[in-house]
Write a structure and sequence with these properties.
Protein Transport Mog1p, Chain A, 7-stranded antiparallel sheet, 5 helices, 10 strands, about 25% strand, disordered N terminus
Length: about 220
Amino acid sequence: MRPTRLYIVPLLIVTMALGACDNTSSQGPNKAPGTPPVAGNGKPASSPAATPGTAEPDEKSPEARAVEKLPEPARWQGPGISWVPPMEWKQDAGDNKFRIATITRDEGENNIQIKVTQLGPVFGSLLDNINRWAAEVGMPPVADADLDKIVTDFSVDGRTGLLVSLVGPQQTMLVAILKTDDASYFFKMTGADPIVGRNRDTFLKLVQSVKFGAGAGAGSAAAQP
């Protein structure tokens, strides 16, 4: 009977050792209490994905949200034409029967204006008008062969318009010419070159907002834009 007891004791010791090894393996090597779970690639498991439909926090500043809430300017309706006046510009009625609006921006010591004139469908030679405008900004006369250098065309409300750019020694002028079957419209902005440059995009946006409607007046072919 004594040999049997000698065999049983070593067997119990081996069994207990194997059980301790199994418990250590299941926990992972050197696993400290509170250690986050580890993914199969050995890296810490990622946090659970956000619940679908959960709104992300709004990171926009109060100033940015205030700008988004600014109302769009109302569309101005004139004789056969309408447009959206630029933000922060003041629009007044024209001061004669041909000028239908004057749009002004305060630029400190030098205000800048966009004058809108309505004439008849025939307003004289394009070259003659351009040379008259060129003289206003101190440019030399423009030759017919040079018109392509200062005149470009663009599309607005299904019609083709002309954009004239005149740069003098101190003054710059932009003129947009729009025509319908019944009338011609001239948007003219003049000012010091830096000021016109700063407001060029605003001028183009104004012109691109134009919509034409029925009832445009015939105006006068003899008047000058």
